């Protein structure tokens, strides 16, 4: 361990937990963050583990995504290679990306302020965790 | 002039060089040099009334280092930006008190601007003309060039804001010259004038299979979306993507290529990834990362007696190659990290990482364990590229500090 002095062992407790508690290793296995983080409302990693209900982006933009998909399907009914069709599907992509960003922003807003602070400042005293 | 936001800087140096096209008007206002464009853009932008003013104040000796990041929508630009700004220290946040839909991120050292802000056609305009945002005709490269050039020369600009929610162009926001400017979006390397302003450029090259898997993960929870709609959107955008976005990778100093794994035969889940870091040789202030022996060809499976890995394991390879006629070195990682000691072990076998202390790559990956890709090559190589950019920045600053001394001698 002496060689790892540069590494802040206190930051994300995830990996250590994973090796330390095999009974729930499947839930906090390090293989998870990729999948979980990309799924809206996934498990929050860190100090507090909780499960949020799956939530789509804020309503306004969700409606726009839904609407744009309908429009794209209509626009492409005639000629699927027309500029109109392609532009309509491009709009779907743009709105879907915006919805995803809105979800991320909301998640950040909803999460524990201390958690957020400690993510950027793991070395501060209020963010250190100690093992007895 | 009443609409101008006047922003005063420390010292106005004489090298207030402003290169502008003929349509630009100049006016001198006390200590500030103001140039603004009228007419041309307004007519191009249809209904939008946002007039653009460019307030110019040159900071004497500071020159902004400009980084370009190109990738398609939904291919991990935001995650990469969060990793990059984290390497520089401090969190990057939207401009305080500004438009809540601003696409800009600002930290102590770095400002990230989104090139969608240079759309010349808003959502309605694109729909009417039947062009996508990927199409150069939907983007104002003249303004992009003028403004990036101005910032690079230490001059603040009033940059438009493309609102991704409404699809309209919002009133502009003031961008002050940062130490490092990142321009991210669909076309940072498309226009040769903009390309020439870049001190370093990165392209995120996501294979079709992985793109599909990522978009399913992103969109399936969204109402109205289905596998069909996700596929249709990718397919419809493909011709423009291949014509205008993909070719930019030939200009990139570093390409991060994301492919399905080869460790599991016929895997198409897109969960385990094979990621290649393609690094151009001979780029100023950038010396590529290597495995064991610079310039040799190596295949390495770190899992064995010293390190136990779970299925399907981890495989690295490294070697020289050519990419679009350029000499490159490629580091490749297939598989994923399941435990901390695997990452530490891998980091200790990579050379030329430009870390400031042992374990810095691992620390960065741990710090953002909740970001997508923190357990595979995408996170690893994004972090490494972040470290290389920090190193490049420090070299540029150091060489500037030396120049006056050399001139005297």
UniProtKB/TrEMBL annotation, chain A:
Q: Where is the composition biased (Basic and acidic residues)?
A: 101-120
Q: Which domain of life is it from?
A: Eukaryota
> What GO cellular component entries does it have?
chloroplast
Location of region: Disordered: 97-120
Report the SS bond pairs. Answer: 76-85, 118-127
Q: Where is the CP12 domain?
A: 61-132
**In its keyword annotation, does this UniProt entry include Manganese?**
no
Q: Does the keyword Disulfide bond apply?
A: yes
BP term (GO), one: negative regulation of reductive pentose-phosphate cycle
Q: Name the UniProt key words of this record, in alphabetical order.
A: Disulfide bond
Annotated protein name in UniProt: CP12 domain-containing protein
Automatic annotation (TrEMBL), chain B:
Catalysed reaction(s)?
Answer: D-ribulose 5-phosphate + ATP = D-ribulose 1,5-bisphosphate + ADP + H(+)
| InterPro entries per UniProt | P-loop_NTPase, PRK, PRK/URK
- Per the UniProt record, one Pfam family is PRK
Give the E.C. number(s).
2.7.1.19
UniProt superkingdom = Eukaryota
Q: Which UniProt keywords apply?
A: ATP-binding, Calvin cycle, Chloroplast, Disulfide bond, Kinase, Nucleotide-binding, Photosynthesis, Plastid, Transferase, Transit peptide
- Gene Ontology molecular function, alphabetical: ATP binding; phosphoribulokinase activity; protein homodimerization activity
UniProt KW Plastid keyword: yes
Q: Does the keyword Cytoplasm apply?
A: no
An example of a Gene Ontology cellular component annotation for this protein is: chloroplast
The record's comment on protein family reads: Belongs to the phosphoribulokinase family.
Q: What is this protein called?
A: Phosphoribulokinase
């Amino acid at each position: 361990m002496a060689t790892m002095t540069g590494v802040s062992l206190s930051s994300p407790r995830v990996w250590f937990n994973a090796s330390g508690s095999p009974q729930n290793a499947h839930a906090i296995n390090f293989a998870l963050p990729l999948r979980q983080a990309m799924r809206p409302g996934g498990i929050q990693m860190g100090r507090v583990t909780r499960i949020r209900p799956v939530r789509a982006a804020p309503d306004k933009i969700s409606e726009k995504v839904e609407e744009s998909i309908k429009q794209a399907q209509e626009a492409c009914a005639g000629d699927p290679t027309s500029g109109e069709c392609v532009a309509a599907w491009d709009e779907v992509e743009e709105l879907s990306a915006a919805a995803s960003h809105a979800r991320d922003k909301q998640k950040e807003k909803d999460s524990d302020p201390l958690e957020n602070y400690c993510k950027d400042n793991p070395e501060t005293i209020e963010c250190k965790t100690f093992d007895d | 002039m009443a609409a101008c936001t006047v922003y005063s800087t420390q010292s106005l140096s004489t090298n207030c060089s402003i290169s502008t096209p003929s349509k630009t008007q100049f006016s001198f206002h006390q200590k500030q040099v103001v140039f603004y464009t009228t007419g041309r853009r307004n007519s191009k932008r249809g209904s939008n009334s946002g007039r653009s003013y460019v307030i110019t104040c040159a900071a004497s000796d500071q020159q902004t280092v400009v980084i370009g990041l190109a990738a398609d929508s939904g291919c991990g630009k935001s995650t990469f930006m969060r990793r990059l700004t984290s390497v520089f220290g401090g969190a990057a946040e939207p401009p305080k008190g500004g438009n809540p839909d601003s696409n800009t991120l600002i930290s102590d050292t770095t400002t990230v601007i989104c090139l969608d802000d240079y759309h010349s056609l808003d959502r309605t305009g694109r729909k009417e003309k039947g062009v996508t945002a990927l199409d150069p005709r939907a983007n104002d490269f003249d303004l992009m060039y003028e403004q990036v050039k101005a910032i690079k020369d230490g001059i603040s600009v009033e940059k438009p804001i493309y609102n991704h929610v409404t699809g309209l162009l919002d009133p502009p926001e003031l961008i002050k010259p940062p130490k490092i400017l990142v321009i991210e979006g669909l076309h940072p390397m498309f226009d040769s004038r903009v390309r020439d302003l870049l001190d370093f450029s990165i392209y995120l090259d996501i294979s079709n299979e992985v793109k599909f898997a990522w978009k399913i993960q992103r969109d399936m929870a969204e109402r109205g979306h289905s596998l069909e709609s996700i596929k249709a959107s990718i397919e419809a955008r493909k011709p423009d993507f291949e014509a205008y976005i993909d070719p930019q990778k030939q200009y990139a100093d570093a390409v991060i290529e994301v492919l399905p794994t080869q460790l599991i035969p016929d895997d198409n889940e897109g969960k385990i990834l094979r990621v290649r870091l393609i690094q151009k040789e001979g780029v100023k202030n950038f010396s590529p990362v290597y495995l064991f022996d610079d310039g040799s060809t190596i295949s390495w499976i770190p899992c064995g007696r010293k390190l136990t890995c779970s299925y399907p394991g981890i495989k690295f390879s490294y070697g020289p190659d050519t990419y679009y006629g350029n000499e490159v070195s490629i580091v490749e990682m297939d598989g994923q990290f399941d435990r901390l000691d695997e990452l530490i072990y891998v980091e200790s076998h990579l050379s030329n990482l430009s870390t400031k202390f042992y374990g810095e790559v691992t620390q960065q990956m741990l710090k953002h364990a909740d970001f997508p890709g923190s357990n595979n090559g995408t996170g690893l190589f994004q972090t490494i590229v972040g470290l290389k950019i920090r190193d490049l920045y420090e070299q540029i600053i150091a060489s500037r500090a030396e120049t006056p001394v050399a001139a005297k001698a």
